[in-house]
Design a protein that fits this description.
With 177 residues, this protein is an alpha/beta fold. The chain contains 4 helices and 6 strands, in the order βββααβαβαβ. A 6-stranded mixed β-sheet has the order 3-2-4-1-5-6, with helices on both faces.
Amino acid sequence: GLPQPYLGDGVVIGVLDSGIDYTHPDFKTAGGLTRMKGLFDFSFGTLGREWSIGSIDSATSTEYDGTKGSGHGTHVAGTAAGGGRLNTAYVGMAPNADLVFVKGMRDTASGTGFGDNDVVAGCQFIFDKARALGKPCVINLSLGAQLGPHDGTSPYEQGLDRLTHPGNIIVAAAGNS
């Protein structure tokens, strides 16, 4: 019933998760360049590292998802914004969107959880990249925990809430835990 298809043109999809296989064809343009406009990796060093677009296009970034690309973050990013280049039967919801990704786990193999401060800082990184591009942004957080009040009163929830406004949206999973 929509008057036209909406494929993510002019929008940034942000994902904070276990990592991403940034070499996957679904995250590239028809010319083989990355659709990613930012990649931050909390598992690199003590403060994390932002990878350059050049390191993504040349596949020299050492960031990876779980066991060499087969993790949760790649799956989530594909569902949100996969371009269907590997298999046209599997196209994400916004295949024309730009991507900004944050590996939110501090261990390289993505076997640990997410720190509240890292999630908030990662979302800020994503929104900052989108603002620099002059585009609205939707962030997916397919993560969760059973700890905390879940009523908007925790510092974590309030930190995320302060980042949102029209054009900065956070979508969180409602059932991982």
